[in-house]
From TrEMBL, chains A, B:
Organism: Pararhodobacter marinus
Protein name as annotated: HTH marR-type domain-containing protein
SUPFAM superfamilies: Winged helix' DNA-binding domain (SSF46785)
Domain HTH marR-type: 23-81
UniProt cross-references to Pfam families, sorted A to Z: MarR_2
Keyword Transcription regulation appears in the UniProt entry: yes
Lineage start: Bacteria, Pseudomonadati, Pseudomonadota, Alphaproteobacteria, Rhodobacterales
Amino acid sequence: MSDTISTIRSDFITLMGQMVESHGLSPISGRIMGLLIFDGEARSFSDLATELGVSRGSISANARLLVARGSIMKENRPGDRQDYFRISDQSFDVMLQTLMQRMLDMSGRVRELSDRLPADDAEGDGPRRRLGGLSQFYAAMALGMRQAQDHLTGDE
Amino acid sequence: MSDTISTIRSDFITLMGQMVESHGLSPISGRIMGLLIFDGEARSFSDLATELGVSRGSISANARLLVARGSIMKENRPGDRQDYFRISDQSFDVMLQTLMQRMLDMSGRVRELSDRLPADDAEGDGPRRRLGGLSQFYAAMALGMRQAQDHLTGDE
DNA sequence: ATTTTTGTTCAGTTCGAATTGAACGCAGAT
DNA sequence: ATCTGCGTTCAATTCGAACTGAACAAAAAT
C-alpha cells in the first residue's frame, strides 16, 4: 500500500488547501494550517516555504494573516533569527467564530433593510416578511454554530 | 429620505449578490434569488435579464442551476412560451442543507485520512488525534446546522 | 414561407484574487 | 566594512471563475 504517513500528510495538506476556501481563506493559508496541524510542533518560516513549494512572499503574507486571526502562533527563539510557527490551540474555534460572525453580520444587514420596509399589506405575505425570514435564517445559523461551539468545548 | 421601496429592493438584490458567495454561488445567482425573494411572485426570464442588466446567457445558466438546487421553481404558462421563475418555499432550507452537506463531506474526508494513520504514540498527542479533532469539528458544525434547521421549521 | 420571440450553447473576454519574484531593509556573522 | 540569512513589500503575472454576445434551434406569429 502507498499509505505511508508522509502520503497521508501530503494528502491532508492538499485537502486543507481546498477546504479552507469555504472559510474565505486562500489555498496557501489552508496548506500552512494543514502542515502545522499535522506536525503539531513548530516549523520555521523557511521550512514552510520549502515544504509547501511556494514563494517566501506567500508565506509571509499568509502567515501574517493567520497569526492575526489567531489560527497560528509565531514563536521567536533566542539566538535564532528565524520565525517559527505552530498551530494555535484555538485554531478550530477561530474558524467557528469567524463563520458565526459572518452569519450575524448577514442577519443584521438583511434586518436593516427589512426594518426600513413599510408593513406588509393584506395577510402577512410581503417583502418585509420574506426579508425578515432571511434575517432569521442567518440568525438561526449563527445560533447553530454557537451550539456547535458549546458542543466542542463542552466535553473536553 | 431616499428610502423608497425600490431603493431598498435594489440594495437587497445587491446584498444578495454579495452574500451568496459564501454559499458557493455566483453573484448573478444571488441577485436572481434576491429579486425573486423580494418580489415574491413569478418573474419572466426576460424580466430577470432586463432588471438585473445581465445577458440572457447568464440568466439561462444561473436559473438552471438554481432550479436544479431547488432554490427557485420554473413555471410554464399555457399560451405563453416564456419561462417564469419564482422563489421556492424551500429556498432557505436548500441553503442550509447544502452547507450542512459540505460540512459532513469535510468531516468524512478528514476522518478517512485520520483512520489510515497509526495510533498516536505516547500520551495521546499526535497527528491522528489532531485530525480526529478536525473531523469532529466539522461534524459538530453539521450538527449545529441541523439544529438551526429544526429551529427554523419548528416554530412556524 | 418568413419573421419574431424564446431559451441554450459555447468560444471569447473580463476581472480580480492568489501567487511570484526581485528589490529592499535589517541584523548578526566574518 | 562586507557579507549572508531572514522576512517584508509591491509591481507584475498567472489563473480560473464569471460573464458576455453571437450563433443556433425550436416554436409561434405574420
